[in-house]
Design a protein that fits this description.
Layout: E1 2-4, H1 6-11, H2 21-24, H3 32-35, E2 42-47, E3 62-68, E4 71-76, E5 82-88, E6 93-94, E7 107-110, E8 114-120, H4 121-130, H5 132-156, H6 161-173, E9 181-182, H7 186-193, H8 197-209, E10 213-216, E11 219-222, H9 224-233
Antiparallel strand pairs: 1-2, 2-8, 3-6, 3-8, 4-5, 4-7, 9-11, 10-11
Length: 234
């Protein structure tokens, strides 16, 4: 973990030179005057896939911006199983519910090697009280969280199992910067779509046989046209 001085985060020294914190994160619209209000350093943290960024039982003292990688938000169920309620990508904010003084709603677990900026809640609250520029960003982040949750409920947990898998693969393939996208384990696919692991495995195998996806380890090439036809039919 690297503790970043506030001035470095603004001027772009060291690793911050290539960091997206200013254009994607909560600090996108801040100026030097705003940064002068921050007293605590920002923690620059790297996690391997499968590590834990925070859990539902952790003190909600921080908000996290995803600098790179993918993070699943996991809700543990009473029967020992789990549901994945969202997957966060570069520029997304994790733990935003902490700003209401509430406990974290899910566990945050990287799917890939992931870099985050850990921002103390107290600093965000101070800035929010004194800077209209941060208020604008917070409003946009709340809206995005609500919009994403609505998409997951309406598109990924309704309809036939084949339709859910097709929708999820298209979601993963969206806004990508290469010809391949990350594909989670069959267990995680089931946990996202509220289907069994066996069902997700069967459908992925069917899609592969039909040439609609080509899987290589944990990445895949998606035939978007073929999968979009499933959405139209089912």
């Amino acid at each position: 973990m690297n503790r970043i001085a506030v001035l470095e985060a603004w001027t772009g020294n060291a690793r911050c030179l290539h960091c997206n914190i200013r254009k994607l994160a909560l600090f996108a619209d801040l100026n030097q005057e705003d940064f002068d209000l921050i007293h605590e350093p920002i923690d620059d943290m790297d996690f391997d896939a499968g590590e834990t960024i925070y859990t539902m039982t952790d003190s909600p003292s921080y908000v996290y911006t995803i600098r790179s990688g993918l993070v699943k938000l996991v809700h543990d169920l009473a029967n020992g199983s789990y549901r994945i309620v969202r997957i966060l990508r570069q520029g997304d904010v994790a733990g935003i519910e902490a700003l209401n003084g509430k406990a974290y709603l899910q566990n945050a677990v990287p799917l890939l090697p992931t870099a985050v900026c850990r921002i103390p809640r107290a600093e965000i609250e101070r800035l929010n009280d004194q800077s209209p520029r941060l208020t604008k960003q917070l409003t946009e982040r709340w809206y995005k969280a609500i919009s994403d949750a609505d998409t997951w409920l309406s598109e990924l947990t309704t309809g036939t199992s084949r339709r859910r898998v097709a929708s999820f693969l298209l979601y993963l393939d969206d806004n990508k910067h290469s010809d391949e996208c990350y594909i989670p384990s069959r267990e995680d696919i089931g946990a996202v779509l509220a289907i069994t692991t066996e069902t997700s495995s069967r459908i992925i195998a069917e899609f592969r046989r039909n040439g609609w996806i080509t899987v290589n380890g944990n990445t895949a090439r998606i035939n978007r046209t073929a999968l979009q036809k499933i959405l139209l039919r089912e």
